[in-house]
Specification:
- The protein is of the alpha/beta class.
- The protein has a single domain, classed as Vaccinia Virus protein VP39 (Rossmann fold, 3-Layer(aba) Sandwich).
- The protein has nine helices and seven strands, in the order H-H-H-E-H-E-H-E-H-E-H-E-H-H-E-E.
- Strands 3-2-1-4-5-7-6 form a seven-stranded mixed sheet, sandwiched between helices.
- Helix 5 links the parallel strand 2 and strand 3.
- Helix 3 packs parallel to helix 4.
- It is globular.
- It starts with 6 loop residues before the first helix and ends in a 5-residue tail after the last strand.
């Protein structure tokens, strides 16, 4: 595993600690993937995007990776800035007998991306909202996507911004440096479109959007 070598990586690693990783793994084993991971999984299945290799950026306990490995993905690389999350993902890979199918990489993706090969499909589930500057992360992610890119993100609405501001206020009072962000959807969409992708599916909840994009040369 490569070292986590950025300020963001240190902050995220401290926030997503062993306690949170254990909780999230238990929730996944009991209830399955969270709502946005389910949306992305189902949308990718419907669009025929579940084959080849997967790069799961900000993979957490590996829920989306495991779901897609069970449905057609051959191999997965899971990257996360939290060593606790990767430890939990390793435990789940062992339980599922998937250690040969998944590679776990530790680090801030922007800093380790040059050492990670492209994949057929790149996913980011509830990751971009944890990153203070979306441009560098998004450009690296779509640059690694050979065919499909799928991600979820907070909707840019007043009630979502208010909710996240409240959460950040609580973190500030507790002395945590971690913050969540609502990034401008129009600018994110422009970044992905400019990289040569077209949107093929979008679904929304009251707080989240989930998108599936395909490179134009592979669009049907």
């Amino acid at each position: 595993m490569s070292a986590c070598c950025s300020t963001y990586g240190n902050i995220a690693g401290a926030h997503f600690d062993e306690k949170i990783a254990k909780r999230d793994l238990e929730n996944y084993r009991k209830n399955g993937p969270g709502p946005t991971a389910r949306l992305l999984r189902d949308m990718l299945l419907e669009t025929g995007a579940v084959d080849g290799t997967l790069l799961d950026v900000g993979s957490g306990v590996g829920a989306l990776s495991f779901e897609l490995l069970e449905r057609g993905i051959d191999r997965a690389t899971a990257v996360d800035a939290s060593s606790a999350y990767l430890t939990a993902a390793g435990q789940e890979a062992t339980r599922r007998d998937r250690l040969r199918a998944i590679e776990l990489r530790h680090g801030d993706f922007v800093h380790v991306a040059s050492r990670i090969p492209p994949a057929t499909l790149v996913t980011m589930d509830r990751v971009i909202c944890c990153y203070p500057t979306f441009e560098s992360l998004l450009k690296e992610a779509v640059g690694h996507a050979e065919r499909y890119f799928a991600y979820s993100y907070p909707r840019d609405l007043w009630h979502v911004r208010a909710a996240i501001a409240g959460e950040n206020g609580v973190r500030r009072l507790r002395g945590s440096q971690f913050r969540a962000f609502v990034h401008p959807v129009r600018q994110m969409t422009h970044t992905i479109d400019h990289a040569g992708f077209c949107l093929v599916a979008r679904r929304e909840t009251w707080q989240w959007s989930a998108d599936v994009w395909v490179r134009r040369e592979h669009a049907r």
